[in-house]
Amino acid sequence: MKTAVVKHTGSRVALTVELTPEEFEPYWERAVSVLGREVHEPGFRPGKAPSQIVVGTIGEGAVLDRAARLAVGKTYARALEEQDLETVGEPRIEVLKVARANPFIYRAMFAVPPEIILPDWRRIARGIPLEAAAVTEQELSSALRYLCEARAVFTAVSRPAARGDRVHVDFVLRIEGKTVAGGESKNHPFILGEGRFLAGFEDQIIGMQVGEEKSFFLSVPPDFPQRTIAGQTLDVSVALRQLEERSVPELNDEFARSVGRFADAAALFGNVAEGLRLEKTEAAKVARRSAAIEAIAERARPEVPAALIEAELDRMIHEFGHSLETYGRDLSLYLVEVGKTEAELRADWRTRAERRTKAELIIRAIAKAELIAPGPGEVEARMQQVLQ
Length: 388
Hints:
This protein is 48% helix and 21% strand. The protein has helices at 21-36, 51-58, 60-83, 121-126, 137-150, 201-205, 253-259, 265-300, 306-326, 331-338, 342-369, 376-387; strands spanning 2-7, 12-19, 88-97, 104-111, 153-156, 166-175, 178-191, 213-219, 233-247.
């Protein structure tokens, strides 16, 4: 096998691989064997027909195509290793020459990580300050309030709905008689007064009784994020299915003991404050690390291959779609709601994807320069962590 490399602009590389007729012959025979299983020739069991019958039935072109695929699949990684090449993204394979009893030649086009000349990254990193992790009284109060509200007790009541109650409603949003995409829900729960819906929606629920149905109109602001309904007038139908009074426990010694092994409310306050401090300390470290990487990237100015940015966009779209699924939503429906195509979303995120890609390249360059690599034990431990 012979290999040759030609470097192009933009971190693109062309790798040409050539197999002699003798090296290509086993792939031809394997292709005949695989395709022969699909040939049902009278007098022969499936897969047992002679090769000349298989070729005559399927056609030499189909056999060559399968042989070429098999040859590329087996030789591509070996050719990369021979040339000591590290690829980025998927390659574009082009068969240049394929014929029986002739050399088989193909070319792979792909991106490679750009050469990065690192600046004095340690000095740059040391110059990024670490923010103090001070916890404010407002942050502590908010966390304690959330803790109490998370342990609220809900009791079904028979009276008009009021602010602070938890309601379960069926609703339908229509524009000119047509239901809005994502504008219909059954037994949808929320707390009245938290402002999680379009302005004016919750006000219409206040005063309703369980079993009552109501219709009204809502005007959507022109700058509303959901572009498909921005500036429109919604015809809303709503039915109150369940009404519960919320009772939030008082923050006292008894509540502290019910939450965990705390002697009194003061002990709970101290524990929550320390937890917040640790969270802010870790967040400050992450922010400092990100700022340092960006500062190093600004000095190194790595050339970012387009294939890497596209791969990062693919990853971001996948992660975002997965996060939507955890809330029972769908990416395609979200795109309809915001009035965007996936291509427009990718265009919006391209700058962020490029920034993330630069950070990855810088981290890789530092790891390579410092000979940082995980040991077998570390890889095994992380695998077990993921499996658990």
